[in-house]
Write a structure and sequence with these properties.
By secondary structure, this protein is of the alpha/beta class. It has 8 helices and 7 strands, in the order βαβαβαβαβαβαβαα. The chain has helices spanning 14-25, 37-50, 68-78, 103-129, 152-175, 213-225, 235-243, 249-263, and strands at 5-9, 29-34, 56-60, 85-88, 134-139, 179-185, 230-232.
């Protein structure tokens, strides 16, 4: 029996790494995508040794570069790899005041979080539709549900991912081509994104508010394979998403802005 194949972007650490561990345990062949080739090679070797019945393919690429998504898709075609499950996990984040953050840095964030995700979804959804269907998991964020000052561009890109994925889920369901799209919206997650000098000041969050990357990945994969349109991980996060609909956006922005400015250091 031939294994199904999953492609995971941002596979080298955090939630992406947990996606890979979970899917390998489920018997998926993996296409590991990130910028750091050496890290991906080490991960591929470890997974192949632990799960002898799977194959791992490493593709090192920078999705912020022009045509990055198209080049990645072309590489999978050249290698004759048919993707059954696409996980658009790669993402960039910046904390701080909009006018203080370098414009090129913010453009890269938009390129990865929106443009690359949209392009990969389009390319692989069409490829899946010509076969027997497939699943796409787009990683959004709880930040997608409200405007977040001092994370304004990041939150806006995730709002795009959520809206785009929910709308596309409906389109594909009506099309009846066997392809489904799910938006995954985790809250604060215990990954390097919580403390990465490259993305600006650190946001201090109580440990009790942090979910594990494994928990987030498990819930995301389960919802995706079940064909659900949206999954917000964790009870408190689901409650926050519901409450976000009860207040005007500017009230939410004022609350979030005060919290972030008091907790960025």
């Amino acid at each position: 029996m031939t294994n199904k194949t999953a492609l995971v972007t941002g596979a080298s650490d955090g939630i992406g790494l947990e996606f890979c561990n979970i899917l390998a345990a489920k018997g998926y062949d993996l296409i590991l995508v990130a910028r750091r080739k050496a890290v991906l090679n080490k991960l591929a070797k470890a997974l192949s040794q632990q799960y002898h019945n799977i194959n791992c393919t490493v593709i090192s690429t920078d999705l912020s570069k022009p045509q990055g998504a198209q080049k990645l898709f072309a590489t999978t075609v050249k290698k004759d790899l048919h993707v059954d499950l696409l996980i658009n996990n790669a993402g960039l984040l910046q904390n701080g005041f909009f006018t203080d953050i370098d414009l090129a840095t913010q453009e890269n964030m938009i390129s990865v979080n929106i443009l690359a995700l949209t392009s990969l979804t389009h390319l692989f959804a069409n490829a899946m539709a010509t076969r027997t269907g497939g699943h796409i998991l787009n990683v959004a964020s709880l930040a997608a549900w409200a405007p977040i000052p001092n994370q304004n561009v990041y939150a806006a890109t995730k709002a795009y991912v959520l809206s785009f994925s929910q709308a596309l889920h409906n389109e594909l369901k009506v099309a009846g081509n066997g392809v489904s799209v799910t938006a995954l919206c985790p809250g604060y997650t215990d990954t390097k994104m919580m403390d990465n000098p490259d993305q600006g000041p650190k946001l201090s969050v109580p440990s009790g508010m942090l979910q594990s990357a494994q928990e987030v990945a498990e819930q995301g994969i389960a919802a995706c394979l079940a064909g659900k349109p949206t999954v917000v991980t964790g009870f408190a996060n689901r409650a926050s998403a519901i409450l976000s609909h009860l207040f005007p956006k500017m009230i939410l922005a004022n609350i979030a802005g005060s919290y972030y400015r008091n907790n960025l250091n």
